[in-house]
Design brief:
Length: 131
């Protein structure tokens, strides 16, 4: 079954949902703080793209080391751009990203370059869903 735009919007209604998915993807069900070692839960800090330990306040940044790190562009727009690339047979131009996302050409070009580089570094076995 193909992943549709309707499913995408249901899975990623806003940036907070996108960040939550990134946190779970990178850290799973993190039960212990990497800094203090206490059994804890993490809560999202409202004005930042990070989570904090309820005991020691240690911050965890799910986007660190990714193409999204330090990007002022909405995380939902990034994921939508990746969706467009994955759904396209012939790739997506920066101009098409500019039109679809409503960003500047410079932003669209940078996003397209980083997504292409990301896809080039992914092992095809990671994408077949059989792992």
């Amino acid at each position: 079954m193909k992943y549709t735009i309707t499913q995408f919007n249901k899975d990623f209604p806003d940036d907070d949902a996108c960040l939550e998915r990134m946190f779970k993807q990178r850290f799973g069900d993190l039960k212990y703080c990497p800094k203090c070692g206490a059994e804890t839960s993490f809560y999202k800090i409202s004005d930042r793209k990070c989570y904090s330990c309820q005991h020691c306040g240690n911050h965890i940044y799910p986007l660190a080391g990714t193409i999204f790190h330090k990007s002022p562009t909405s995380l939902k727009l990034w994921l939508y751009a990746i969706f467009l690339f994955s759904a396209s047979k012939n790739g997506v131009s920066a101009k098409e990203l500019q039109r679809q996302l409503g960003v500047t050409y410079k932003t669209a070009w940078r996003m397209a370059r980083q997504i292409r580089e990301l896809f080039a570094n992914i092992d095809n076995n990671d994408l077949d869903g059989n792992n």
